[in-house]
Amino acid sequence: MPPGLLDHLDQAEAALRSGDLSQASLSVALARAALSPLQADLTDARDEVERCHRLLERTSRITAARGLGTVAQEALDAVMETIGARRGLIGKVTADGWTLLVARDLARADVEDPSQSFSTSIIGRVLQSGEPFVAHDAVRELTAESVNRLALRSVVCLPLVVDDRVLGFIYLDHTRARGLFNDAALETLRGWLPTVARSVARADADDGARGLPGVLSRSSTLQASLAELARIARFDASILLTGETGTGKSLIARGVHRASPRAGGPFVHINCGAIPEALIEGELFGSEPGAYTGAQVQRIGRFEAASGGTLFLDELDSMPIACQAKLLVALQERQITRLGSNQPIPVDVRVVAATSRDPAEAIRAGALREDLYYRLAVFVAHLPPLRERPEDVALLARHFLDRTRERYDLPPLHLSPEAEAQLVAHDWPGNVRELENTLDRAALLSTDGQITDMRVRAAPAGPTPSTGGPGALGPLLSAADAVAAALVKRPDLRDLKALGVFRGAVLRALVRRLGSADEAFRLLGLDEQVRARNHQRTLRREVGRLEALATRLGERLDA
């Protein structure tokens, strides 16, 4: 209790009883002045509790995350959200310095070239000393060239230490706010860093044994490919990724980059199908002034921008054949020539390419040069579609729901068993991209964080993707789909019991066709099940509302 506070309050009360309002007002003012330091301490304590609460929420997710990239992303997002940094990165120590794990800005967009965006001199100082570094106005306190070039104000770099060994670091900065990283916030972070360091060490060991950073999968087929890619990533060999649109080829390419010695360099992504034919050569190789109409300044191409890192060529078979010939020369000679110039420029680039078509088919159709294919296909990895790895659906669904909840500041989100069954039953012609969009939509429409009906949209009209699978499963699913089609057209055939042991497969096929489990039950005349399911949903919603009301009531009583 602040000294004199009770005396002032007693005096104010006595003055009020005697009718001396002037003395009462003076005593109240003195009491308020005595209370002011306590209020400031209370505000600081509330801020501390809020920071601890946020970090505690993240701890379980970080310790449960798999993959070094995923752990680093979770940790960096937690720290930036808690401390209010504009940008941040997490790196780990290597034999020849350090390598980047993840670099983000406040909008959670990746920073493509960290070596030019952050102060490497500060990072080097922390890794050498093993001690935290804090600057409240870096441009005034430091003389480092990178600090002045970036006009840094608030900067903090904290080592990640395990068993007295510096494993890596967390770096945060802000180019406008001074004194952002106060002692109280830093003390909270220091107490939390050992948990992050141990999680990073564990994930690093796991990734060294299997998989790629930031890639989630329980599919044995995909995990086998990821393990091979993780081994290949250590070398500069070119990689060709194949698979349907939406299977995650760009995510795999970024995982290869993060698992490679080039992880500290830029990752440059170019979609060959999204750039007009007349512009793609300039985009790849750059141009000099006067190289074409309207070219007034020198432009750096994607090859030069990716030097020292990885260039990802997506939809390679969409690149014009003439440009493919120049790409082949660049890969063979390891040098490029800008449009409008005769001066070759050496480039140090690791190329990962991707195509959604079968390469052999693309070569036969004249969309892909055979010699370019053999130059790029040092290692070819095929990514299976989502319908062939149903064990990944629930895992990815929870991951996407977590991201959606953070992005839109939603309450905790939960999938009901019925909703999860709908997800697994769907064919996902749009693969992982379709799954992510579906979950985003369901999360935004959910009530009290409960997702009970996915209402998966039917695929647009067009060729139906194969539902076949290994062994006898493919024919069974095809037959179930044919039965479901007949049930939709012929009301007189709607007797689910007559289907015996196959009724589960037929019901799943109906859910895929109709986009709703309720509609499937109604079509089969099982309205009682629909009413029961709706009653359960209503009951869950009311229980959620009652729990929320009880929480609010408890908060008011505590206040």
Describe this entry's structure for a reader:
The chain is globular. About 4% of the residues have low confidence. It has four domains: 54 residues, no CATH class; 145 residues, Beta-Lactamase (2-Layer Sandwich), CATH 3.30.450; 165 residues, 3-Layer(aba) Sandwich (Rossmann fold), CATH 3.40.50.300; 144 residues, Helicase, Ruva Protein, domain 3, CATH 1.10.8. With 559 residues, it is an alpha/beta fold. The protein is built from 22 helices and 14 strands.
Outline of the structure:
The chain has 559 residues and is α/β, with parallel strands linked by helices. The protein has 22 helices and 14 strands. A hairpin with a 6-residue loop joins strand 9 (335-337) and strand 10.
Question: What is the fold's blueprint, element by element?
Answer:
Layout: H1 5-18, H2 21-64, H3 68-83, E1 87-94, E2 97-105, H4 114-117, H5 120-129, E3 133-135, H6 138-141, H7 145-150, E4 154-162, E5 165-174, H8 183-209, H9 220-232, E6 239-242, H10 249-258, E7 267-271, H11 277-285, H12 302-305, E8 310-314, H13 321-333, E9 335-337, E10 344-346, E11 350-355, H14 359-364, H15 370-376, E12 379-382, H16 393-408, E13 414-415, H17 417-425, H18 431-445, E14 450-451, H19 473-489, H20 503-514, H21 517-523, H22 527-558
Parallel strand pairs: 6-11, 6-12, 7-8, 8-11, 13-14
Antiparallel strand pairs: 1-2, 1-5, 3-4, 4-5, 9-10
